[in-house]
Backbone:
């Protein structure tokens, strides 16, 4: 009959993955005794990774063949649907499609054996992190109180009855607790992307402000969106950006001056540039242009976040968070919308940074004079290279950050997805630096085009003619003028914005876990 068939197959599926408890035995002797005394332990204890015993690949191959219904050496969505149904596991077509997309490295629409193995390894690693984060008592079991506490930490309050309902859906032996094997078996071949734990700890663009707001916006968990924690994160990030930009403003102004005025005949150095600024306008002149640079944080961040949330609905499917390439598309479009909205402020910032003492009485005076002398078009000088610069900056920053994040999670994450301060700062600094390096020539051309009308008698130039002129007169090096002060401000900017962000989070009542 069909009824006893499913239980006979289910243990075979469960035993394919690691059956070890949450922490490995201290030595080989303990491992041997543990294995002998507990028939549930199959393979070598591994403490989190899938067992790598000699028969492990054979067990994986056995499961792969069971799921490979049409025997073509690959698992497509239909294979997984039929194969898992035979094993008593029911998944929706959307869930199965996500599994294939997550593991399909060669983009042929199905998983071969190596892709299948890699997907399961990565999958169990993520499930282990979630299980450990829920297991507050660290006893290898999750009970109703721990589920309630974990959701409370995320700002969501549920009753004990609701927590018990969640437990019953996974609890196979009726103990009203979930051990690692029950947790893992329940989620076997179930897509897990962007676990809330990882989203919570690996915020990137919200935390770090290096003066350029071109990064792809952070993801927020469902709980953060429902409880209003997202706006507190954005306010904390905006405040951190304001402090960070103000502290590094002298380096930013020096960068703008070197981008516009430095050449082979006028070789500005860092010390000489600071001396020249102080001699011309005193120490206070080091902060010229910072006011408008800080003011534009709020409208840019707000517009970008709202645009990103709207574009996500168009780009993404029904899943909670987007995959990397979808995030890049949505983030770049949101960045383009935000930059288009506040671009006149970018032009004002450059003009204010380049102004001589007494040239303008303030931001409004500067805007009025530009409008009177040059017209509305002046507020969009350099717009094209600025828009083109969003894609390499956002793309490389996101790719490098996600690569570093995943490398750390794969190699070092054991008990939590929390990377700690130094890892987070290092990843943010490296990814921001790579993004800036890739888009720097476009940023330099943008700044020169913004500044050109402030130079008396300067001819009208296009982006392509300016590129050619710089390459002809200064060589490739000319496209990187001002790079030194730009890189000098990255580490202090990232560090200051992180410290201020963490303190503002506490002040605003954001759960800092």
Residues:
């Amino acid at each position: 009959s069909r009824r006893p068939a499913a239980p006979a197959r289910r243990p075979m599926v469960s035993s394919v993955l690691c059956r070890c408890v949450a922490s490995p035995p201290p030595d080989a002797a303990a491992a041997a005794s543990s294995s002998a005394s507990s028939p549930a332990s199959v393979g070598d204890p591994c403490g989190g990774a899938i067992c790598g015993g000699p028969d492990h690949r054979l067990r994986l191959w056995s499961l792969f063949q069971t799921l490979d219904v049409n025997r073509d050496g690959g698992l497509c969505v239909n294979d997984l649907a039929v194969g898992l149904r035979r094993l008593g596991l029911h998944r929706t077509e959307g869930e199965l499609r996500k599994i294939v997309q997550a593991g399909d490295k060669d983009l042929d629409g199905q998983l071969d054996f190596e892709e299948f193995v890699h997907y399961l390894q990565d999958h169990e690693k993520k499930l282990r992190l979630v299980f450990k984060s829920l297991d507050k008592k660290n006893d290898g079991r999750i009970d109703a109180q721990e589920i309630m506490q974990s959701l409370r930490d995320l700002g969501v309050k549920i009753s004990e009855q609701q927590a018990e309902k969640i437990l019953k859906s996974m609890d196979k032996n009726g103990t009203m607790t979930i051990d690692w094997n029950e947790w893992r078996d329940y989620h076997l071949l179930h897509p897990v992307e962007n676990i809330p734990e990882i989203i919570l700890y690996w915020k990137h663009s919200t935390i770090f402000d290096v003066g350029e707001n071109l990064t792809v916006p952070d993801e927020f968990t469902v709980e953060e969106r429902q409880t209003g924690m997202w706006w507190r994160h954005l306010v904390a990030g905006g405040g951190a950006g304001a402090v960070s930009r103000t502290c590094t403003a002298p380096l930013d102004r020096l960068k703008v001056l070197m981008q516009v005025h430095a050449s082979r005949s006028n070789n500005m150095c860092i010390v000489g540039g600071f001396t020249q600024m102080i001699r011309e306008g005193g120490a206070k002149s080091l902060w010229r242009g910072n006011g408008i640079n800080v003011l534009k944080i709020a409208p840019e961040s707000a517009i970008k976040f709202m645009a990103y949330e709207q574009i996500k609905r168009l780009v993404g499917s029904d899943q909670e968070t987007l995959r990397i390439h979808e995030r890049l598309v949505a983030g770049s479009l949101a960045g383009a919308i935000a930059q288009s909205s506040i671009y006149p402020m970018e032009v004002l910032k450059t003009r204010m940074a380049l102004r001589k003492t007494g040239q303008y009485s303030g931001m409004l005076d500067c805007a009025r004079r530009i409008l009177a002398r040059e017209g509305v078009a002046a507020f969009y000088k350099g717009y094209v290279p600025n828009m083109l610069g969003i894609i390499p900056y956002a793309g490389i920053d996101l790719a490098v950050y996600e690569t570093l994040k995943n490398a750390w999670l794969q190699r070092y994450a054991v008990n939590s997805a929390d990377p700690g301060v130094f890892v987070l700062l290092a990843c943010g600094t490296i990814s921001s630096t790579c993004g800036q390096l890739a888009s720097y020539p476009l940023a330099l051309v943008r700044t020169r085009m913004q500044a050109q009308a402030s130079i008396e008698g300067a001819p009208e130039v296009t982006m392509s003619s300016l590129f050619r002129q710089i390459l002809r007169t200064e060589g490739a090096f000319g496209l990187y003028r001002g790079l030194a002060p730009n890189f000098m401000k990255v580490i202090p900017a990232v560090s200051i914005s992180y410290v201020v962000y963490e303190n503002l989070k506490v002040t605003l009542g954001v759960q800092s876990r």
